[in-house]
Amino acid sequence: MKTVLMVAEKPSLAQSIAKILSRGSIRAWGLCSSHSSLEQPSPRFSSPGSMSSHKGLNGTCSVHEYTGTFAGQPVHFKMTSVCGHVMTLDFLGKYNKWDKVDPAELFSQAPTEKKEANPKLNMVKFLQVEGRGCDYIVLWLDCDKEGENICFEVLDAVLPVMNQAHGGEKTVFRARFSSITDTDICNAMARLGEPDHNEALSVDARQELDLRIGCAFTRFQTKYFQGKYGNLDSSLISFGPCQTPTLGFCVERHDKIQSFKPETYWVLQAKVHCPFSVHAGSFQVLLSSFFLQVNTDKDRSLLLDWDRVRVFDREIAQMFLNMTKLEKEAQVEATSRKEKAKQRPLALNTVEMLRVASSSLGMGPQHAMQTAERLYTQGYISYPRTETTHYPENFDLKGPLRQQANHPAWADTVKRLLAEGINRPRKGHDAGDHPPITPMRSATEAELGSEAWRLYEYITRHFIATVSYDCKYLQSSISFRIGPEHFTCTGKTVISPGFTEIMPWQSVPLEENLPTCQKGDTFPVSEVKMLEKQTSPPDYLTEAELITLMEKHGIGTDASIPVHINNICQRNYVVVESGRRLKPTNLGIVLVHGYYKIDAELVLPTIRSAVEKQLNLIAQGKADYRQVLGHTLDIFKRKFHYFVDSIAGMDELMEVSFSPLAATGKPLSRCGKCHRFMKYIQAKPSRLHCSHCDETYTLPQNGTIKLYKELRCPLDDFELVLWSSGSRGKSYPLCPYCSNHPPFRDMKKGMGCNECTHPTCQHSLSMLGIGQCVECENGVLVLDPTSGPKWKVACNKCNVVAHCFENAHRVRVSADTCSACEAALLDVDFNKAKSPLPGDETQHTGCVFCDPIFQELVELKHAASCHPMHRGGPGRRQGRGRARGRRPAGKPSARRPKDKMSALAAYFV
DNA sequence: GCAAGGTC
């Protein structure tokens, strides 16, 4: 029997499609074969309706197997999936060395290669294992350009291991579907086509453009500005065709706020006195108790709005005030009553969910997406990444609704809807990807936890609202004349709340009801006054507004919008303020203003859509892939060179906001070359800067630095500093020069003296090292000479710390080694009063691992946390040192070498 | 260390 391999874009889809095709086969076969207008002869298929599933070798993708017919023959079907893109584009390794490659080379010279997108998933191997020996392949990837591109990634992996076709028989098929419904999937199976190479090529072009342009600009501006300003708190200044315009939106709003000049204006406000009587009508019963209370209040005054709204000249306002003030009565000129409707929402898609999550639930897009994904994988909601706001025609709306009928939060509403009949959902947009986001089963807050619950509650309420009725309300208004001036008063009364019952935050605000009156009626004026007000600036952009702008300009996709927003936060270009408003930082502002100054297209949202237009030509087969790519790269290469030549313009802006390196930081350690003080710059990346030599020395991050007793490195004369990760962590001395320019072959950048193999320096590993770490492979336990009186021995690779010999007044690493485990012996002196040693001893030399006296004085921990090893009973203590302290044969010894000179010579070869 | 796009 021949085998048909089928591949979907994600595991969940493989399962749904396999279920449909394996069970619905007989009906589907009938349906499919009844189509007479097939564009091409399509392989017919059927299956007896049972399917078996197993996990693939990567543990993530499943394989669903069943038998059926295909191309008129009995076959074995294997349905599986990838996890998004199989491959990713990157430069060849040597072009990823920032110091060695001129970013300009990234536009053309630097070759790119496709790498596995997620090596852990082992996707190519997995596809080959499953594809080996298959005869046909049907590609069920999402029906968009990215999906088309993944088709070819799958084919590249699988075709070489599949059986060879006989006599030009077609073996590669593409299924095109627009929803995951029985009809659609069966139709797709009945009308298999071919993957579209042009669409795939347009994605290849997009990938290459994004990579080359993004990396070139990012590397250039990072290298240019990094280390130039002391208080520029960013080690990466990135640029990207999506993230930069996203930042641009935030800065644009900031500029509007900055340039805003408040203007004073004046408003007339009138109050009339009216005996209260409301229209009688059936809607009254629906009004809230608030209204009924108002109704009992017989006399009240009515606030009128001025038809001129406002004037910007005080004297003119005063004139109008004077004229109206003379009048004692307001005359009704017209009345109107209109029934209006507030529409029920469209079915929920991803961006709308993210907007509401941000604006109403205070949940950032990235977080909201993660929460939604968890709800999805746990089966509470449908697939959360979709652009579609239209339920498929045969979508079962009542099923999910019934599941909610006993939910304590909305049982009443749902039961009434089911009893009285649901409303037809509004016609939304069908993007052909996934159905809108809906609840899949009932859940409670206790079950989900408060965060996930809030999102689930919103999704469910939104779903119920889409099958509810519009909210109907009555808008009435009365036009008045007071002297020469006209005033109006409006009121809204809810006729039927419709969907706002389940989405109360959308309710028509309760407004006072208006009195019944007719044209010509008069009301006594109780007050006319003039109010002075000021126009106010807009506020910073909310995340929700930003999402709307990005969607409108085609910046990013439903899945990547949260990533871009997260990026500009993490890169320190904007900060999220209260109300989830995005306030650009100085860095963000300077960058955008810099782009505006040099080449505004770099930050305008139009650039992405212009490129996309070109890419679409490739997809439609109207333009040549190579030509478009070459042409676009050429344009950006020119832009890049112009940007490089004009960078001083951006630098001028930087100078205003940031202070030069030489003017920042506090003097800390002395430079070994000029013997002047260097300055310690705390802003990330923290570093030392010698303004005389104009050299910068990076320091280890995430810790504090102080001077180390003015001790100097014997190799370069730089003053040592002491790095510490905190009182419960570890610390070690460090030479700023050696750490940046490793003196020995076996040392790497960033290392401290505790890893230095200098054979005689008193701060080195050679002198302070004790023995192999008890936990990690390559680490050595090193005495921390500054840690007394709470002495510590810490691993120079991992975070193992041993606390030992508390209150000893001196601890030294001896030249002798333990005969049992080869660890260096420690020489410990205690004060007479505090000595824990037996008898009246104050001094003891021994091995920390093997000496029974020392074993009682050593406590193993992890830096800043308690170590699990220490939880055991007393019995394990004995064996610990003996077994683990021993250095394996062949490993470099941390002991003091016997022949210092020969060892020294070896290092300097 | 960099982009944006899939998805987990």
Mean pLDDT: 85
* DSSP helical segment count: 26
Query: How large is the share of residues in beta strands?
Result: 15-25%
For the largest beta-sheet, the strand count, sense and barrel status come to: 7 strands, mixed
The name of the CATH topology of the largest domain is Topoisomerase I, domain 2
Shape: globular
* Poorly predicted parts: 25-48, 278-297, 865-909
Q: What Rg, in angstroms, do the CA atoms define?
A: 37 Å
The helicity comes to 25-40%
How many angstroms does the end-to-end distance come to? 67 Å
Output the CATH homologous superfamily of the largest domain. Topoisomerase I, domain 2
Total count of domains: 6
* Class derived from helix and strand content: alpha+beta
CATH architecture of the largest domain: Orthogonal Bundle
CATH class of the largest domain: Mainly Alpha
Count of extended strands? 33
Quaternary structure annotation: single chain
Kindly describe this structure.
This protein has 909 residues and is an alpha+beta fold. The chain folds into 6 domains: 2-23 and 50-83 and 118-195, Rossmann fold; 203-260 and 538-657, Orthogonal Bundle (Topoisomerase I, domain 2); 264-275 and 300-343 and 472-534, Topoisomerase I, domain 3; 350-468, Topoisomerase I, domain 4 (Orthogonal Bundle), CATH 1.10.290.10; 660-757; 768-864, no CATH class. The strands form 8 sheets. Strands 1, 2, 3, 4, 5, 8 and 9 form a 7-stranded mixed beta sheet that branches. A 6-stranded antiparallel barrel has the order 10-11-14-13-12-15. Strands 26-27-28-29-33 form a 5-stranded antiparallel beta sheet. A hairpin with a 2-residue loop joins strand 4 (62-70) and strand 5. It starts with a strand and ends with a helix. It binds one DNA strand of 8 nucleotides through residues 9-11, 60, 82-86, 88-89, 91, 96, 98, 103, 106, 117-118, 121, 142, 146-147, 149-150, 203, 206-207, 209-219, 222, 235-236, 238-243, 373, 377, 385, 556-557, 559-560, 563-564. Residues 868-898 have a biased composition (Basic residues). Belongs to the type IA topoisomerase family. Residues 196-640 form the Topo IA-type catalytic domain. One of its GO terms (biological process) is DNA repair.
